[in-house]
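> example.struct
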């Protein structure tokens, strides 16, 4: 299995550096079946996205998802999102109150099959308030707030915003560090 992964990684690197290798991979996609075809589709989509050639990448992604619908995780790998948040909680008895500000950026596209190829969200800002109850080292809470996003459709940039809500659970590793879900 490690040999296959290494070979795929090597072929992807060569395709990113050499257009002839990339075009050969794309020509071979129709001649191959099974896991080889899926690997070639993944390589072609990844390299095309890396070159900002989203229309061609979308074609390969659509075929990949049609052949292997359980691997929708590839969409997240090919369009990562980066961000961070800051917040403050305070406690009164078992009740925990807090606020949070989060920022994320990336190249988030709607699901494969969206009719507009050049549509994507570029950044989000979330402002949230939270209230919950501490159960030992695990505060359980609900959040509500507002999300603002910037999007781009075929060169036109716009804004959208709306209400957000959710629930969560944090685990206090120390008094100042937590992990959450």
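> example.seq
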């Amino acid at each position: 299995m490690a040999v296959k992964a290494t070979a795929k990684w090597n072929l992807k690197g060569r395709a990113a550096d050499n257009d002839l290798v990339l075009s050969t991979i794309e020509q071979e996609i129709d001649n191959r079946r099974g896991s080889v075809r899926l690997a070639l589709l993944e390589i072609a989509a990844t390299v095309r996205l890396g070159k900002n050639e989203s229309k061609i990448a979308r074609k390969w992604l659509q075929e990949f998802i049609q052949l292997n619908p359980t691997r929708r995780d590839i969409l997240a790998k090919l369009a990562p999102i980066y961000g961070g948040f800051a917040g403050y909680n305070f406690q009164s008895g078992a009740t925990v109150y807090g606020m949070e500000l989060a920022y994320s950026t990336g190249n988030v596209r709607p699901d494969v099959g969206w009719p507009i190829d050049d549509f994507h969200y570029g950044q989000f800002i979330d402002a949230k308030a939270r209230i919950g109850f501490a159960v030992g080292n695990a505060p359980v809470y609900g959040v509500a707030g507002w999300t603002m996003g910037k999007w781009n459709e075929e060169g036109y940039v716009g804004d959208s915003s709306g209400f957000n809500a959710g629930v969560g659970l944090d685990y206090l590793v120390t008094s100042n560090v937590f992990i959450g879900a």
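> remarks
Residues 112-116 have pLDDT under 50 and may be disordered.
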